[in-house]
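Collaborator request, handled under Task 6.
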Amino acid sequence: MKHLGDIGRLYTGKGIDDMNTTNTTWQQKKWKWILAASIVTAGTAPALMSSNVVKAAAIHQPTAYINNVPAEYDVVIRQGVTYVALTELKFLGDYTFGYNNKTKQISISTGSDKYVLTPNSKTIKKNGQAATLSSAPILVKGKAMLPLRAIGETFGAEVRWNQAAKEAYIYAPDASIIKEYNSSDLTIAREAALRLPRFSDLKQARLDIRNPLGPVDSSMTYIFEKGQKDRFFVNEDNDLISYYEIKNGTALLKWQANVSSAAGTIGDLFFIKTKAVAEAGKRPSVAGQTLVSFKYSQMLEETSYEVMNKSGSIDSGSTAPEKDKIIVTVPEENE
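Structure tokens returned to the collaborator:
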């Protein structure tokens, strides 16, 4: 998914004994991670119609999203405490990790700060000063796991948990993104909307892309209502459509649908030309609205846009966005 840029340093080993202080540099590709597994926008029309909610598989493994990036490793729940792999912290910033086999201690460094902690101990030291965690880190199959609450307490992250979807969300608040979202410049505000923390508001596990196209052929289209920034759709690989509403500085996933290749419609969502094979959440409405879509091409390094309504296309074009951006200014919206 897109836009996360150079976000930290990565430990790629299988177990804690493989940790060392020489970490490889982690670089995220420009656009493949912003969605973090699934995401979308529309406008101000009220959601209408309840869809047939597709029940998740009977056994659904919990997962986590760190700054909108899906966790690399399994989420573990022990005695009501939710744990994520220590090395997922790399998605929060520039962290390096080490393990002292003699003392059995884990070290975490970022900037001038160094943290030392021990599996099964609630004591953590920051720059030599001891503090007590609400829950102790644990080892699972040789991998160090941190309790969610401890991440928030220690590293200044916000933590949320969706019990129905079994999803954890860990993110570092970014005041600059909120400021940009509140900008009077619609292009800047929409770009910021795509970078806001995203949480599932579904009462089940989110849907997956059934037939991912791979890094070369994959595509992502973002759709907003004309002149609006507070709701958007995301079309991933013409397979998964997701819809988000922005409230209180976060983007809430309200609805998803897997679509087929068969021609058809889904409610009044006129920009979708195929039938749904699965839906989750409450289907939104775009009745009477004009929409604007944005699709970035890595190969061409430009964004194509289209203004459309139920009758068809009104205007379209393409232009190069600013570096590491997707959204561009649409002339039709400035008239």
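The cover message to the collaborator said: "The mean pLDDT is 81. DSSP finds four helices and 27 strands in the chain. Please let us know whether this matches your experimental observations."
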